[in-house]
Design a protein that fits this description.
It comes from Galbitalea soli. InterPro entries: ALO_C, FAD-bd_PCMH, FAD-bd_PCMH-like_sf, FAD-bd_PCMH_sub1, FAD-bd_PCMH_sub2, FAD_lactone_oxidase-like, Oxid_FAD_bind_N, Vanillyl_alc_oxidase_C-sub2. Residues 1-20 are annotated as: Disordered. There is one protein chain. The protein is α+β, with helices and mostly antiparallel strands. It is built from 14 helices and 20 strands. It has 2 domains: 72-185, Uridine Diphospho-n-acetylenolpyruvylglucosamine Reductase, domain 3 (2-Layer Sandwich); 187-399, Vanillyl-alcohol Oxidase, Chain A, domain 3 (3-Layer(aba) Sandwich). The chain has an 8-stranded antiparallel sheet, sandwiched between helices. It has a 5-stranded antiparallel sheet with strand order 6-7-11-9-10. A hairpin with a 5-residue loop joins strand 9 and strand 10 (151-155). The radius of gyration is 21 Å and the shape is globular. The two termini are 31 Å apart.
Length: 438
């Protein structure tokens, strides 16, 4: 055995909403070492959990068994046309430089890029845009180490029936060691960000989503303002007009991180100040236009720590759902400092995708990591359930298998794949047992 187990080290996720104390930690640097480690864990009767960047808010990454740190598995493994094979531990933020020599980019991205490619796709990370699915829909092949310690290649020509499960597998089917992603030619985005009247944006929601490549907005509770973001795709050789260094620092460092972090802390200390602070924030942010590489427009640097819940509902129901959330906040007298984020995505056919079989709108709510989010999140979740909502697998929610079967008609099919690939539940943990069953 060439691999070694390191001493136990406590693990905590980025949002400080989940933690665990594994029995041992290992840091493989090759896929063969991953296989050896899974087999070693099986011999010792240990569970295994691969960890990426820890950006899931749920306890999906918690384990009291063997924690695999995949940071040693990074980089491009192969490129064939637009198909790029990546090591599982490659961070999304690394892809701009890794793909640049090939003139490629991801077709779409979310607004955070700290995650690993395997972690992001395994939990259903997505961006916005009516014609674009989540990151998992871009997967064309995967290599995993199953619960029996075997390598399994899944693609259109090998075990093709498993791809709709493996592409978004929650870490329940095996340790993902490589992913082949279908990229697109590198492109620019023209970004127009501006404050608008919330009522108007909700009335025009369907047209705004359908009429733009990428449309989203943020609503600060206790205000009448929606901060809209409309991105238009352009060829990579189109004229660029990036934000200047000073403007980017003011907007993204001073305002979005420094000042916002201070106002969140102030609002936590004096809740009565949250409404006026939000009104000031809505007036001071979100009014700019620029054109730059897609990664530099999609992604925002967020260092103010928070906890998040996000639900997918039928895209047409977003305005009514947001109005219900607004009424709930007012009725309960809550003081919510973090904005509500609203996006959209195309339907897809992945078994556990939040957009499986339907075009979806996404509503995400947040609270500071120093605040207990449960009352707020449970109240919003009840509204989302009323709209047939599906929770993001990597963000906080309170659903279990029985509840989730009502909105994921193929959940039993996924469970059958789990039985096949991990019959001894080598990759199980309490979160997976709750949402998938033991």
């Amino acid at each position: 055995m060439s691999v070694e187990l390191g001493p136990a080290e406590p693990w905590t996720n980025w949002g400080r909403s989940a933690s665990s104390r594994p029995a041992a930690v290992a840091r493989p640097t090759t896929v063969d070492e991953v296989q050896q480690l899974v087999r070693l864990a099986a011999d010792r009767g240990m569970t295994v959990k691969a960890i990426g960047a820890g950006h899931s808010f749920t306890a999906i990454g918690a384990t009291d068994g063997l924690r695999l740190d995949l940071s040693g598995l990074r980089g491009v493994r192969a490129v064939e046309g637009a198909l790029v094979t990546l090591a599982a531990g490659t961070h999304l933020w690394e892809l701009e430089s890794l793909l640049a020599p090939y003139g490629l980019a991801l077709a779409n991205m979310g607004d955070i890029d700290r995650q690993t490619i395997a972690g992001a796709t395994s939990t259903g990370t997505h961006g916005t845009g009516a014609a674009f699915g989540g990151l998992s829909t871009q997967i064309r092949a995967a290599t995993i180490v199953t619960g029996t310690g075997e390598f399994l290649r899944v693609s259109a020509t090998e075990n093709a029936e498993l791809l709709p499960a493996v592409a978004l597998g929650l870490g329940a089917l095996g340790v993902v060691v490589e992913l082949t992603v279908e990229c697109v030619p590198a492109f620019l985005l023209n970004a127009v960000e501006r404050p608008e009247r919330l009522g108007t944006v909700l009335e025009e929601w369907g047209d705004r989503v359908a009429g733009a490549d990428h449309f989203e907005f943020y609503w600060f509770p206790h205000t009448e303002v929606a901060l809209t973001k409309t991105n238009t795709r352009l060829p990579v050789d189109a004229p660029r007009a990036p934000l200047g260094r000073a403007r980017r620092w003011v907007d993204d460092e001073l305002m979005a991180n420094g000042l916002f972090g201070g106002t969140v802390a102030l609002g936590r200390a004096v809740p009565a100040l949250v409404p006026p602070i939000n009104r000031i924030s809505a007036r001071l942010t979100g009014n700019r236009g620029f054109t730059d590489l897609s990664t530099r427009v999609f992604v925002t640097d967020r260092r103010v720590r928070f906890r998040e819940m996000e639900y997918a509902i039928p895209v047409a129901e977003v305005p009514d759902a947001l109005r219900e959330i607004r009424a709930l906040i007012e009725r309960r007298g809550w003081r919510i400092s973090f904005p509500v984020e609203v996006r959209a995505a195309a339907a897809d056919e992945l078994i556990l995708s939040t957009a499986a079989g339907r075009a979806s709108g996404y509503i995400a709510v947040h609270r500071s990591w120093r605040e207990d989010p449960e009352e707020y999140f449970r109240g919003v979740e009840e509204i989302m359930i009323g709209h047939g909502g599906r929770p993001h697998w990597g963000k906080l929610h309170y659903r279990d298998r029985a509840s989730l079967e009502t909105v994921y008609p193929r959940l039993a099919e996924f469970a059958a794949v789990r039985d096949r690939l991990d019959p001894e539940r080598r990759f199980a943990n309490p979160y997976l047992n709750r949402v998938l069953g033991p």
